[in-house]
Structure formats: C-alpha cells, structure tokens
Amino acid sequence: MTLEEVPLTPVTLxxxxxxxxxxxxxxxxxxxxxxxxxxEDLDVGLPxxxxxxxxxxxxxxxTGDGLDLLALNPYGALVHDRGRTLGVLERHTxxxxxxxxxxxxxxxxxxxxxxxxxxxxxxATPVARVVCRCGRLTTLTAYDxxxxxxxxxxxxxxxxxxxxxxxx
Length: 168
Prior knowledge:
Layout: E1 11-13, E2 23-27, E3 33-38, E4 49-53, H1 58-63, H2 66-69, E5 76-81, E6 84-90, H3 91-104, E7 127-131, E8 137-140, E9 150-151, E10 161-162
Parallel strand pairs: 1-2, 4-5
Antiparallel strand pairs: 2-3, 4-7, 5-6, 7-8, 9-10
C-alpha cells in the first residue's frame, strides 16, 4: 500500500486557515512546506515539516530510515506527489501499521532477500525541512535526537553550530 492510498487528513496553508481548522502548514518562497501543525498552535509555533513521497509504501516507511524523521513532528508527515501536498499522514496511522508489522515479525532486522537489491518503481527519499534558530532552512534525510545535526549558519559571519529547531 502506497502512502497516496492511505487515508490522509486535509491540510491548509496557515495563511488561509480559520481558527480551529485542523492541520495547517507554512511554505517557503518556492511553495515547499517548512512546518506542519494544528491551527490552534499557530501562536506558539509549528514543528518542522516532514515530507514523504506519495509512491513510498507504508512498509518502506516503517522499515527504513524515514521512520526516524517522524520524531521531528508530533502530528505526522506531509505526503507529497510531484510538488503537490496530498495531506497529512497522521502518527496514529503509522503506529497502527507498525503494530501489524510487529505482529508479522517484519520490522527492521529482517533477513536479507535477493529482491532487496532492486528498487521497484520510482524512488524518492523522505525528508524533513527544519528551520534553525539562526534562520537557515536545512533539509534532513536522517535524524537522531542523541546526535543533532550541524547547521552551517545563516551567513558568512556565522559559523557551524548545532541545529536548534525554530518553531514557525
């Protein structure tokens, strides 16, 4: 089952959202999401947006490195298809799927299979778009809270420093 086939929750631009509207997102100048949250959280800021490619399967998400990116957003992730946001894949949907994988014994650590060497269909990598406190937008393909990534700085006068997430 691909992510575009999973039930997704609607999301609107924060600038167009009415109070208590549900999920909202902010976008950068090119229209790519930078943050995802609930409309009632706009006053305190939204967590970073995690973008998942629509052709990705739930199994690939739950058994790959993309699963670690979900730690960056308490609500879930945005499912994207060719630059278009399809909706929010909520965390409880991923959790329910993880339970079924666990029951079948197909989580990380499965024995390798010959088919693991080939990518079926089109392939895209899940990413998280994180704005650092210095203002620089960084795209992450992996995340480990015990070893935060380094931000290269917003300008030539800024040096590398630990990435500290800014809420939008």
